[in-house]
Amino acid sequence: MKHLYIHIPFCESKCNYCAFTSLKKKEYEEPYFKALKRDLSFHFEKLKINKKSLKSVFIGGGTPSIVSASFYEKIFLFLEPFLSEKCEITSEANPSSSNEQWLKEMKNFKVNRLSFGVQSFNEKKLSFLGRSHGQKESYQSIEKAFKIGFKNINLDLIYDTKLDDKKMLDFELLHLRKLRKYIKHISAYNLSIETNTAFAKKEHFKKNAPNLMRYFISSLENLGFKQYEISNFGKICKHNLSYWQAKEYLACGLSGVSFYDKQRFYTHKSLKEYIKEPTFRKKERLKAEDLNLEHLFLGLRSIVGVKRKFLSQNQEKKAFLLCEAKKLRFDEKKQRFFNTNYLLSDELALFLQE
Question: What pTM value is reported for the model?
Answer without folding.
Answer: 0.93
